[in-house]
Amino acid sequence: MTTVNEAVTRYLQQFDRELRGLPEPDRLDAVREIQSHLEDGCRGGESAEAVIARLGAPQALARAYLSAYHLNRTVPGRIPKLWQALSAMVYFGSVGFGGMFVVPILAALTFALGLTGIVAPLAGVARMFGAHWVSMSGPGGPLPMAWSIPVGLLLGIVGAAGAWGSWLLLRLYFRLVARGYRQWAMLASLAMNPVVGK
After folding, report:
1. Can you give the residue ranges of every domain in the chain?
2. d(Cα 52, Cα 145) in Å, to the nearest integer?
């Protein structure tokens, strides 16, 4: 089991390696800033893993620092604001447009397939015991009564599995949106308030 110091040290070493494109003074400043952030979080009662998870992968954090450094060197004070506005339009536009289709479709699939998972086995049992209003047909016409329960169970399992898969995809979509937002916010913050390349 790794100690807090080992987890922080490993994270900082990887972060430092990813910043090899920065001049050494800026790289050391960035590493010191992240080290201070990690230590403050741990002193505040958070686990090293929780603070590291909030910061994200060291590669992504290093890319944010490198982007901020190069943006600030290009035209200090002007491009960061333009970049923030453009990146906000692209990110929130794509999330909003995608959300108009992805969320309703996956939610509808989850509901419909989940309902199938419940109703199909019940319909199979009802048909087996003489409910003539339940119809089950195959390619060759109506299914034999003896197949009612197995076919109902099979349809129920397929429906339940489909509902579960749709639900997992919906959760994954929301997680990706949340992670994208955190990364966008970090990049925007670095672009507006650069901590490297001063």
Report:
1. 4-78, 82-191
2. 59
Q: Over 50: is that where the pLDDT of 26 sits?
A: yes
Q: Burial code of 127-162, b = ≥16 C-beta within 10 A, e = fewer?
A: bbeeeeebebeeeeeebeeebbbebbeebbeebbeb
**Model pTM above 0.70:** no
Burial 89-99 (b: 16+ CB within 10 A, else e): eebeeebeeee
Q: How would residue 93 be classed by pLDDT, with cut points 50, 70 and 90?
A: low
d(CA 33, CA 116): 54
Residue 158's pLDDT is what? 95
Distance between CA atoms of residues 152 and 145, nearest Å: 11
Please give the average per-residue pLDDT across 152-160, as a whole number.
Answer: 93
